[in-house]
């Protein structure tokens, strides 16, 4: 068997048919209409529709090879010319008729995705549940591999083979013919037939010479006739040899490319009929997803953010929302606003494999000329900002502000060290007293428990901070500076700061206490100018008089103890207190979270690693302040603000930041999309969130963070949650090595990618062969066994015909029973995602991504992007 290498780079395209149909169907560039049209019509139409064929060979060509190539190209051109005016539209290759033929088989209303451009990351095969869209069997797609290159290569190989065969025919006919002529001459010569002896005896040499000349001429004529007949026979045999050889080569090639498609799969034989309604809904959702991705009114669906590369695992198990192997898994600019949650155990690579590359893609994406993207980067440890400071898209920004206390040395990618200055922030500046109370309650949810008893004390502490803030705000804004100077000179803080408010609430014993001095000051000023009394001040004064001061000492002490849980941690860290709680920094050394909301990059360099619990308090306060500011922007500027500036809140170790209560993660992310803030947050596991904020709040967050990216994790709750997202599939036992659950499982071992060689045999062309290119039936799981039938033969004396019939019945029944048993053997619904697949590590994980209004999910390779 000889092999001819063929360039099949266009084997899955259909040349001018694709281009013509694309022009007629869409002004865009449809992704796969060529395959859809070309895989259902006969091979001849595909030859006519494609471009000029070329044979490729890596070895230097002989003169015979060059001649054979020319024969192949000439044959294809002749075929085009011959059928150019054929009455059959498919053979003629008329574009309009080809399109009409396609429209009859796959109406656009029923199968719109066959006639639309499809983004590469959304492109699905035309097989659904084991069959081609419309219910055709998969082997019908095999003819698309019969490209012009294959046809020309087959003709070329057959021509070369025919040339060799005719050469041997000439030799075979010529040698016996010439041999017979020489044998004739030898016989005549030896027998002396007709030899003029009389002339020889008489010495007349003329007749003798004539006899010899006649013998030579007769021998030459006989030899020439033999050579002519040999040449004529070879000439006459050449075209049939080429025809039969081409047919045989194409049949062999077609059988080869069709062979993988004939292997039996459970989905086409059983599942397809069971999922009729579900399949219609899945395909309808897919068509709407493609339509959304192409919608000009939704430009953000074309802002693609690659996350990982699909392994094709879930599609091979029958999940149609999953992509094929090696497809990119992407978020888009619209779906990322529905928030992203990254899960993975310690050391699984959350930062390296997901947060860093995804952050870079967010910041470098083309969001449009009228949109800006800001970032708020934080984490529970206070170290994420160092990982993201020099990533592409961030490193070249001039609007980066690092919030912290002091200076930090950060190593650049080139090994040099950059010294980074930080900015402080007044945690309560610009906030309403009620918002300060809500912030305090949210912070405490990260520090304390969540029992009903503890919640009671925390809420009372939050109320105390709220009313203390109302009084502090009035003192800070009053024109009389006497009391304000006392704060700044003696207490080393401003009234309307976190420490100033806490000092007012704390110092409440005795008539000369700071609280009483502030209350007396506020009462005196409010009586002088009642119209200037701010909202909430009277409520605060009433609360001090009627609730706080008359409260039992033990009760008040418990409330103050809860306030002290937060405040004493801050006062124990002078650097943090100065930067965030006292408002003693210069204006140039201060930045607010508004910086991110205005399109800048704000990085939080405070966390537990350096500052312990105090660092966590500051980080949570800043995050809560961002939430409050974002909501306020929505109220003041409306939805137009989010269209102009979006903010990516990128957070690691989110379990150390998540809070509950008012103005917390429990409430903010319900409406965050309206504010223009979206989350890309990472945490170790669902159990870690449960331990911090409770099961109810965790479940709420899991629902709000629509896209999930999961790296290696052993945590059971996380694994079960991912399995629930992936859904269930029908799987059973298999005892046959060439029986598969789905065609996509079969594709992994026997891919439908055509064949890049033309196989030829020395005998190709000798045996008459008809070109049928017949589509075969999908093979049975277990072939019929007729071994016990063949022992009975009909028509012979003494044989029992009834016995043969009975044996045939038994063989048939056994054949049917065994195949049905294979289809249903151990069949049951099982999770599509195995728990072991969530613990492979080495960059392998699971994603469940929102994309253009739909979902894409699969086991993925994060290092393959």
UniProtKB/TrEMBL annotation:
Bilayer-crossing regions: 168-189, 209-233
Gene3D superfamilies per UniProt: P-loop containing nucleotide triphosphate hydrolases
Keywords: Cell membrane, DNA-binding, Membrane, Plasmid, Transmembrane, Transmembrane helix
Superkingdom of source: Bacteria
InterPro entries documented for this protein: P-loop_NTPase (IPR027417), T4SS-coupling_protein (IPR051539), T4SS_TraD_DNA-bd (IPR019476)
CDD domains tied to this protein: TrwB_TraG_TraD_VirD4
Example of a GO MF term: DNA binding
Topology of this chain in the membrane: Multi-pass membrane protein
GO cellular component: plasma membrane
Extent of the signal sequence: none
Domain Type IV secretion system coupling protein TraD DNA-binding: 598-728
UniProt xrefs under Pfam families: TrwB_AAD_bind
Location(s) in or outside the cell: Cell membrane
Protein name, entry field: Type IV secretion-system coupling protein DNA-binding domain-containing protein
Species whose genome carries this gene: Methylobacterium phyllosphaerae
